């Protein structure tokens, strides 16, 4: 079976029965009503590197462990596994999704790097609400925002907040869960000078 992946249409010629055994996505497209057995599949929105990992898993039964890779390769592999998760979510391969998200988490930890807004936005664009990877990504972003040693702040994720209300809600919920039942000071109580429009060194003349 011919499979074309990515904008450059990377071509794979794979065993149809193997693909169909592992996912109903290919079954439907090869054997669904009105389909021919010699079918052609186009995954032009997907990442070729992620599909290459899927093929390795199909034929070898395993993925490489990011822990066995040199440091300079860990992040690239982790990022590819994140894209593999999104691909597996689309084509309904839950077992490989679980493997991919484990390798992604481990790769982030061992590389000392986390996804930025450019990696986060496509995840929220292509995955359903309550997806485990959304939970993971929003918790990572929340931790970056709250970490006093991190260069990230809420403006870092502006493009994600603007593109997805779900992301904004997930991050707020992650911060609430992470900080526990600590309540902010009541902003309606006490002096209100900090809400007045004047310079910090100017004497407040209100009240």
Key features?
single chain; 207 residues; mainly alpha; 9 helices
Structure notes:
The protein has 207 residues and is mainly α. Helix 1 crosses helix 2, helix 3 crosses helix 4 and helix 7 crosses helix 9.
On the 0 to 100 scale, the average pLDDT is 91
| Distinct helical segment count | 9
Rg result: 23 Å
**Could you tell me how far the N terminus lies from the C terminus, measured between alpha carbons in angstroms?**
78 Å
Which structural class should the secondary elements be placed in?
Answer: mainly alpha
Q: What is the molecular shape?
A: elongated
Instruction: State the total count of DSSP E strands.
Output: 3
Let me know the largest β-sheet.
3 strands, mixed
Estimate the strand proportion.
Answer: 5-15%
**Which strands sit side by side, in order, in the main sheet?**
2-1-3
Unreliable runs, pLDDT <50, ≥5 residues?
Answer: none
Which quaternary structure do these chains form?
A: single chain
- The secondary-structure element order is EEHHEHHHHHHH
Helix content: 40-55%
Compose a concise summary of this entry.
The chain is mainly alpha-helical and 207 residues long. Helices cover 55% and strands 6% of the residues.
Which secondary structure elements does this structure contain, and how are they paired or packed?
Layout: E1 2-5, E2 10-13, H1 16-22, H2 24-31, E3 40-43, H3 48-60, H4 71-91, H5 94-111, H6 117-126, H7 132-146, H8 158-163, H9 165-179
Parallel strand pairs: 1-3
Antiparallel strand pairs: 1-2
């Amino acid at each position: 079976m011919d499979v074309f992946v990515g904008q450059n249409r990377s071509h794979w010629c794979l065993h149809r029965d193997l693909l169909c055994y592992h996912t109903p996505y290919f079954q439907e497209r090869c054997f669904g009503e009105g389909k021919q057995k010699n079918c052609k599949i186009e995954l032009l929105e997907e990442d070729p590197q992620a599909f290459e990992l899927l093929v390795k898993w199909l034929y070898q039964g395993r993925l490489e462990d990011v822990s066995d890779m040199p440091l300079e390769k860990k992040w690239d592999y982790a990022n590819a596994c994140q894209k593999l998760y999104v691909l597996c979510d689309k084509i309904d391969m839950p077992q490989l999704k679980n493997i991919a998200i484990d390798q992604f988490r481990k790769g982030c930890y061992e590389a000392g790097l986390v996804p930025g807004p450019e990696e986060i936005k496509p995840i929220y664009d292509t995955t359903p609400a309550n997806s485990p990877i959304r939970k993971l990504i929003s918790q990572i972003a929340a931790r970056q925002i709250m970490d006093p040693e991190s260069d990230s702040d809420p403006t870092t994720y502006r493009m994600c907040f603007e593109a997805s209300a779900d992301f904004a809600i997930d991050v707020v919920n992650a911060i609430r869960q992470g900080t526990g039942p600590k309540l902010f000071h009541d902003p309606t109580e006490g002096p209100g000078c900090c809400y007045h429009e004047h310079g910090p060194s100017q004497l407040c003349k209100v009240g």
